[in-house]
Specification:
There is one protein chain. The chain is mostly helical. The protein is 49% helix and 0% strand. It is extended and about 30 Å long. The two termini are 25 Å apart.
């Protein structure tokens, strides 16, 4: 795993997946990093770039704006259409 994929305690995560331990009970440090690495490498580079761009925009949002975005995200399983 690359050194830039590892996160020091107290450091802000580089992406939205940095909070995986909170989302997946029992998933800690290296396990969370490994899962994030696997997920990132399972999607195409254009989607990775688009997600990174979206995250840069979202970082500028207020808490209430982030909450609104969260509430607008689709829920449930995806439609199954693989766009790659």
């Amino acid at each position: 795993m690359a050194a830039d994929d590892q996160q020091q305690p107290g450091q802000k995560p580089a992406s939205g997946l940095g909070s995986l331990p909170a989302l997946v009970p029992g998933l800690q440090g290296p396990e969370a990093n490994a899962l994030q690495f696997k997920i990132k490498n399972s999607i195409c580079k254009s989607v990775q770039s688009k997600v990174d761009s979206i995250l840069q925009d979202v970082e500028k949002f207020t808490d209430i704006e982030k909450l609104y975005l969260y509430l607008k995200l689709p829920s449930g399983p995806s439609s199954g259409n693989d766009k790659r």
